[in-house]
Design goal:
transport, amino acid transmembrane transporter activity, membrane, AA/rel_permease1, single chain, Amino acid/polyamine transporter I, transmembrane helix, globular, mainly alpha, two-stranded antiparallel ribbon
């Protein structure tokens, strides 16, 4: 039965046929890809959304989301070095859990990556718009219809630029990404240097105004520490994009684990400092739900010139997140096309060694989403897809440890049972902490996915074997 059919581990990577990508990335490239993908809209934009839902206790929300992501990252590190294929959680699920579950995970990854790119593009537009409107750029063209505009042109523009860069070449993209990541870290360090001395403990009182568990507020918005954690979980993932670079890593046995675990450690340290500086410098109600909370805090502190530097740097550096996730999405689409779930012609590799066709198709898809939807709705729905994928990765870790304990593991996750259970149970709890309309939307998305699988994907996958 195709639903339970598992793919042999040795068949995960292509052998010629125009589907093989060039191995051009070393561990510094992967570390920069991870940091670039993780540090972005989550801390530059969604910290305001998180503070609106949890108050100063958003610091706890960051800690909870980070701990759950740490479990998922360790699981990814072991599986990606065992199975160095570009399909990430989709490929691991195909080998361990079977074709049907792999399809659901792949369908969820489409949701995750597509919406993350869209979210970041909208977040980038939030920083770019204040710089464009004084120059005469129509405000109606900087936001979608639900926010009173027509279409978000800056968001569409930046997606096109990043997609063109990825189609030009992976190594060139990685070099530019590393430079932009350094700019981004320097910008956040500047914010901490200016805002942290203004830390006032009174701004942390009351520390947990909306409680811990998710609940509906009188304004119809679900609040609480866990409600915030379920949304700002978006701020931590991105390390999974590194696993999609497995087929382009020079030494995947070593480099993937360094990139995945290292990037999460670096980013957690950055987040703790930035979040503490933000909630300590100003009452959270003054920057909650701002499209540019860090720049707003600096302006309120009378640091207008530094605020402008932060805004400009965000415009320059946020595309690193776009690059990381658009890169990952195109590679997952690539592997699904190889497996027959998408037209196999999309899996062709260009003369420059990049999957140019699938990158272009992905860019068009996410540009349409970014052009019309607001950031909070996109981010919450993206989290739903990610949580499903992370749950599957935790399950794959646990099952493989029992089913094949003697398989070669270039990176062995310590306390694998605890790590796997932490990923599975933690992600499941975060999923249930998402807004109910997001959960319903995710269930509808996966119901559509199952229909597509049984009516279209199942036959194509069988024919491709």
């Amino acid at each position: 039965m195709s639903w339970t059919r598992r793919k042999p581990m040795e068949a995960m990577t292509p052998q010629g046929g125009g589907h093989s990508m060039a191995r051009t990335l070393s561990w510094p490239h992967l570390l920069a890809l991870g940091v670039g993908a993780i540090v972005g809209t989550g801390i530059l934009t969604l910290i305001g959304v998180g503070a609106d839902r949890a108050g100063p206790a958003v610091l706890i929300s960051f800690a909870i989301a980070g701990a759950i992501c740490a479990c998922a990252a360790l699981a990814y590190a072991e599986l990606s070095t065992m199975m160095p294929a570009a399909g990430s959680a989709y490929s691991y699920s195909y080998v361990v859990l079977g074709e049907g579950i792999a399809w659901i995970v792949g369908w969820s990854l489409i949701l995750e990556y597509s919406l993350v790119v869209s979210t970041v593009a909208v977040g980038w537009s939030g920083y770019a718009a204040p710089l464009l409107t004084p120059l005469g750029f129509p405000e109606a063209l900087t936001k979608g219809p639900e926010l009173g505009g027509l279409i978000n042109i800056p968001a569409i523009f930046i997606i096109g630029v990043v997609a063109a860069l990825l189609m030009f070449g992976t190594r060139e993209s990685a070099r530019l990404n590393t430079l932009l990541v350094l700019i981004k870290i320097a910008t956040l360090s500047l914010f901490v240097w200016v805002a942290l001395p203004a830390f006032d403990a009174q701004h942390l009182e009351p520390f947990m105004p909306f409680g811990f568990a998710k609940h509906m507020g009188p304004d119809g918005i679900e609040r609480g520490v866990m409600a915030a954690a379920a949304i700002i979980f978006f701020a931590f993932y991105g390390f999974d994009a590194i696993s999609t670079a497995a087929e382009e890593a020079k030494n995947p046995d070593r480099d993937l684990a360094i990139g995945i675990v290292g990037s999460l450690i670096v980013c957690t340290l950055i987040y703790v400092l930035v979040a503490a500086a933000a909630v300590g410098a100003m009452p959270f109600t003054r920057f909650a739900d701002s499209p540019e909370p860090l720049a707003l805090i600096l302006r309120e502190m009378g640091q207008g010139s530094i605020a402008r530097i932060v805004a400009i740097a965000a415009v320059i550096a946020l595309p690193t997140v776009l690059l990381g996730f658009l890169y990952g999405q195109s590679r997952i689409f690539l592997v699904m096309a190889r497996d027959g779930f998408l037209p196999q012609s999309l899996a062709r590799i260009s003369k420059r060694g990049t999957p140019a066709r699938i990158t272009a198709v992905t860019a068009v898809l996410v540009a349409v989403i970014a052009g019309v939807l607001p950031i909070d709705q996109i981010a919450a729905l993206a989290n739903a897809g990610t949580l499903i994928a992370f749950t599957a990765v935790g399950a794959c870790l646990l099952i493989l440890r029992r089913r094949a304990p003697d398989l070669k593991r270039p990176f062995r996750t310590p306390a694998a049972t605890l790590v796997g259970l932490g990923a599975v149970l933690g992600c499941a709890y975060l999923f249930l902490s998402l807004p109910m309309k997001t959960i319903y939307a995710c269930l509808i998305w996966n119901a559509i996915g199952l229909a597509v699988y049984f009516l279209y994907g199942q036959k194509r996958a069988s024919a491709a074997r």
